[in-house]
Write a structure and sequence with these properties.
heterodimer; A: 151 residues; mainly beta; BH3618-like; 9-stranded antiparallel beta sheet; globular; B: alpha+beta; 3-stranded antiparallel beta sheet; 2 helices; 3 strands; 33% helix
């Protein structure tokens, strides 16, 4: 990979392997996705890359082959009053405690003409306390898989 | 593929702790009840496939995404990918 993403653009280091995504994260930044993501089931480790000069977007970077990278946004930033209730089973999968502040990411798709849509149907949820996440696929949802994004 | 004939209220079990039970049969469909541990995600196939296709469309190579974000910042969000 030619262009590692900030902030995981470390000095060359003998004791760090470069992962599939071309980044060399600190172990404490690695988020486990036990089921991968639909379509990328073999990718079980991700990092969230943030940008100092762009608060809206993040990159969800896969560390296992094929190392997919997703542009993401806080779904509440894409749609005010966005609210998704996790099922009891999903709460168990994340071991959600009362005090846990979950991290929500919605995947943004950019069409060839630059039009952006965001997947509010199946957002990604991460419990930072456990560094575990998955893509939520509610059985029923009022939110579309391609919500227009004007950012 | 294993094929079973099941009547109403009959079930199959898969591995340790997954049960699929026929709750009701009708002309238009079969109503199934799935019991599984919380670590096992259960989805309708067509929803899973829809989200899988959307993820595949939205995934980038890391270098491409870096360039895309650079373009988004500069306000020229047209893409050649």
């Amino acid at each position: 990979m030619t262009q590692p993403l900030a902030p995981y653009a470390p000095e060359p280091s003998a004791d760090r392997e470069t992962d599939a995504g071309g980044v060399s994260p600190r172990p404490e930044d690695v988020i486990a996705f036990p089921d991968g993501l639909p379509g990328f089931e073999s990718c079980r480790r991700f990092v969230v890359v943030t940008y100092d000069d762009d608060q809206a977007f993040q990159c969800l970077q896969g560390l296992d082959a094929p190392g997919p990278a997703f542009l993401t946004i806080d779904p509440a930033r894409a749609l005010k009053r966005y609210r998704l209730i996790l099922s009891p089973a999903d709460r168990l999968r994340l071991d959600v405690h009362e005090e846990d502040a979950l991290l929500w990411l919605a995947i943004v798709m950019v069409a060839p003409d630059g039009t952006k849509t965001v997947n509010l149907r199946a957002p990604i949820v991460i419990n930072p306390r456990l560094m575990v996440g998955f893509q939520v696929m509610p059985h029923h949802s009022l939110y579309p898989i391609r919500h227009p994004l004007d950012l | 593929m294993l094929v079973f004939t099941r009547k109403r209220d009959e079930a199959i079990i898969i591995g340790d702790g997954i049960e699929i039970r026929v709750l009701r049969t009708g002309r238009d469909g079969v109503k199934l009840g799935v019991t599984a541990p919380p670590s096992v995600a259960v989805h309708r196939r067509e929803i899973y496939d829809l989200i899988r296709a959307e993820n595949a469309s939205a995934a980038h190579h890391p270098g491409d995404l870096h360039q895309l974000i650079t373009r988004l910042r500069s306000g020229t969000a047209s893409s050649s990918e």
